[in-house]
Amino acid sequence: MRQKIVAANWKLNKTLSEGIELVKFLQLKVNEYDKVIKIICPTFPLLYPIGQVLNKEKNFYLGAQNCSAFEKGAYTGEVSASILKSVHCDYVIIGHSERRSIFNESEEILKRKLERALNENIKAIYCVGEELEQRKNRLQFDVVEKQLENIFSLNNEQLSQIIIAYEPIWAIGTGVNASPKEAQEMHRFIREIIAKKDTNIANAIPVLYGGSCNAGNASQLFSQKDIDGGLIGSASLKGEEFIQIIYAAS
Ligand code: 13P
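Above: inputs. Below: predicted complex with 1,3-dihydroxyacetonephosphate.
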């Protein structure tokens, strides 16, 4: 049985006080027997203070939304994986579609980011997913397979530090989620691709669903055989809703 994981991607939302209030609310609602891994991914300046209030005994962990492809040096505005590690970050999201499209992050850059994170023992939540036009042309499997090439060059030890998030771009922030059947089909496919490299890792690797996942659809999505939880955007900003998503994974 793979462990369930629910990650909150706050994107460019939540001030420090709002973030702390939300985390405290969630931690009050979850008991110490809750086995779901909860990963909170705030903006960079909030990482350290939010990390200070996260309760690992209740399986709350800290994640960043991005990291630099550079190790250190004269790169104004960048945040390196080693700096993330120094503020006790356990996870980092890499390759989110918003980074790929708005900030032009190429596969090559994402590969370097993955390596930086893994070198620091930070687990990477690697995002893949197709555009609507690509799905209409039945290219979704080709697109995702291509995006997965980056993790193919990793060795097995590194690969076991990866979480995959399947986030169809047409479902992100639109209110239109992939149906449980569509999501399951892609998650199964992702596992099959990874099995070509190593079947044990393919069976063990967590594959999360993201894209308009909310309190209403989470339990149906999470009950699919190959869906191990979710990467949640807007529904993770509201305590009452996000707690329902955590319960749906429990
Ligand atoms: P929404 O849940 O707002 O659709 O966003 C999903 C997402 O991009 C999480 O990374």
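The chain has 13 helices and eight strands.
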